[in-house]
Amino acid sequence: MSCSDTLAQENGVFGFDARAISKRFRHAAIFGALESLNDGDVMRFQNDHDPLPLLDQIRHRYGDQIKIDYVAREPGNIVIDFRVELGAYAEAAAQQSAGGGCGGNGAGGCGCGN
Question: Which residue intervals define the domain DUF2249 in the entry (predicted)?
Fold first, then answer.
């Protein structure tokens, strides 16, 4: 294990420099990195442009499980912290199973018949 791995594990922040990855593979690499994180971990993402389409994809794919916070937002220097918050997912799932989804049927399901 390298010193940088040890440092990242100690403070729960893992660096991800998207500029070093071919654009063809960038989104797949980012999703793979996000999925390898544990609850409470942070991936500090660095890029040369504001990745608005990527942020939309992350929101759509992960919902409240990934919190997005800009650290720097300057031309040529974008730094974003992606924080894994599985507690938000667990809370939403608990509400859904309690009948909070599409109408509920009293048995914890949505009542839509699917």
Answer: 16-83
Which among 27, 45, 26 is positioned nearest to 84, based on CA atoms?
45
32-55 b/e (C-beta count within 10 Å ≥ 16 → b): ebbeebeeebbbbbbbeeebeebb
26 vs 18: CA distance, rounded Å: 7
Q: Which residue pairs from 1-9 have beta carbons closer than 8 angstroms and sit at least 24 positions apart in sequence?
A: none
Q: What is the pLDDT of residues 53-107, one digit of tens each?
A: 999 999 999 999 999 999 999 999 999 999 999 986 566 555 555 655 555 544 4
CATH topology of domain 3-98: Translation Initiation Factor IF3 (3.30.110)
